[in-house]
Predict the 3D structure of the following.
Amino acid sequence: MFDLPALQNAFIMLMDWKVLMVIPIGLLYSIIVGAIPGFTTSMAITTLLPLTYVLDPLSAIVILASAYGGAIYGGSITAILLHTPGTPASAATAIEGYAMTQKGEASRALGLATTASSIGGAFSYLFVFFVMVPISWFALRFSSPELFAVAVFGITILAVIRGSSLAKGIAAGFFGFLLGLVGMTAYGQTRATFGRVELIEGFPTVTVLIGLLAFSQIFTMLEQKYIVQTGREFEPNFRDMVKASAETFKDWFNLIRSSLIGTFVGLMPAAGSSIASFISYNEASRNSKVPFGNGNPAGIIASEAANNASEGGAMATMLSLGIPGSPSSAIIMGALLIHGIRPGPKLFIPKDYDPYSGMTFVYAIILTQILAAILTWPMGLTISKWGSRIIKIETKVLAPLIAFLCVVGSFASRSFIFDASIMVVFGLIGFVFSKYGYPPVAIVLGIILGPIADGELMRSAMLFFGNPWMIFTRPIVIVLFSITAAALLFTAFGELRKKKKPAEESSDD
Amino acid sequence: MEKEKKRIDLGELIVPGIIIATMAVFLYQSIGIDRPEDNLRLVCIVVGVLALSLAVILFSIFRGEETDGKKKTPFRDTSLLKRQGLLYGLVAAYIFLMNILGFIVSSTVMLPLMFLASGVKKYRLIFAISLLLPVVTYILFRRFFNILLPEGMIETCLVDNVLYRKWF
């Protein structure tokens, strides 16, 4: 299970001050960048790439991997304070986090998010540390049919983010699902692009996300003087944040379950941290006695633990199989290739002349990332303490500033003015939809899952010579579809029971 | 319990209307796709969502919506709506102008207007933010993130004809 000499060598490698120094640098940079709406995790890592040219391979991957975790966490700060997820992975956090902020519990929400992120990240790397070899065996068995089944399972989340009615939640989700189909198909045809080159890759997720969740929020924000409606002035309180950190451990079952979900989703190629956070959020809501959507701490813990845990899983798949589990790990993989290191099964074979090979290198990466996850807690709390002062500013001052950030963020993702226009359109859609009880988050989910389900189904059809039904010959697919069916049936019965209860109560009256 | 008489709220038709319009566009676009695999799947999805949206409309109109006991009618406060509309229009104009004037000039011009539209009266604050924010953002993006922000026709023309012109 362990390669002890390699582990010993890995510890020796970590004695290098340069390797240890790059961890806080990567974290500090990425938490700040991740908190800026429009700056995705991939962008935080990409902008650090030039710096890695002057570093040794281990320091290079350590700074990038630290930035990966930091950016995922950073996204939660603005998600909680401004309902503006810095990264798509924090979209689920925004639902409960912002509701808590509106109730005057921003410090608590930030404390919960920071601790859950830190624990989730550390848990996933510890898990990877222990089960690196079996993981590579399992992940190798996931191909297009299984990924399609995972995307279909993701649709059950719509039952949770339902808005004012289940039908509206589903309608909004399918609307997003359809928008996610814009662009080039797996067969090479373009769909609904109207000849626009900018839409060939589909609607840019980041831009749509900024429009639906951040830009639309500006107009809702103007309806009140401050974000916090409690009347008392919000003072960022370090003690409250630390107290909330302790509270996170009380929900230990949710924390471990979410970290496990995140790690496993991260292991699946292309699934990513956004899906991990939504699946985990969904599971937490299913098991919670208190309804979600009104500032439930369990939702924040679930979402944040899972999205940070997905990082460890994605890194494990990338290192063991050479398959990037997410766009961010693809960039890290690119950086490794620049340094002459090819991730994949051969990485585990030690080379006498190369210190950056074999299990020593893999263990060194895992150990630094456990350290980075632990460091996320003090650094995250300090940064969010200062960041949380934003909500003391009047909304009329904040609104134009956020509008400016939204325009810049949507432009920066691909350097197209067209993207900023898309953002404005989606902002209006998000505003109108939310006003009539259609949850914009459901549209986001549809946009994320739509292309995955569509692409993987098409690839599965190609794999089985045009017969997509053949996917049901695969055991993992059957298991995943059974879970999906069970989840849907469970929700439907729950809904029926809820409707029956008031009817019975009114007849009693 | 006496049942309240429900009226048809036309506002409830806006969102299903948007969804149906999008479906119609997709349906029209899917006709042009050559491959039968693509066409079939897309049409199925479109028809499915279309049916669902119709169900939502029917559900909303004839059965009424269950809210938390309170019926909220959106977009009733006209003065707020005007303020929101004005800000939205200014952001749209800002994006349009960015292409012509470039990032710094359009931001310096449009940011004060956006602040005034949202109700800020502190002119010194407006002046300071509108001047500093675009410049700092520009430097940050250009120098540190290596992301080029729009230069616009005027800025490009100035750079080409003034800075890079061979004067002698």
Remarks:
- Residues 4-227+238-508 of chain A form one domain.
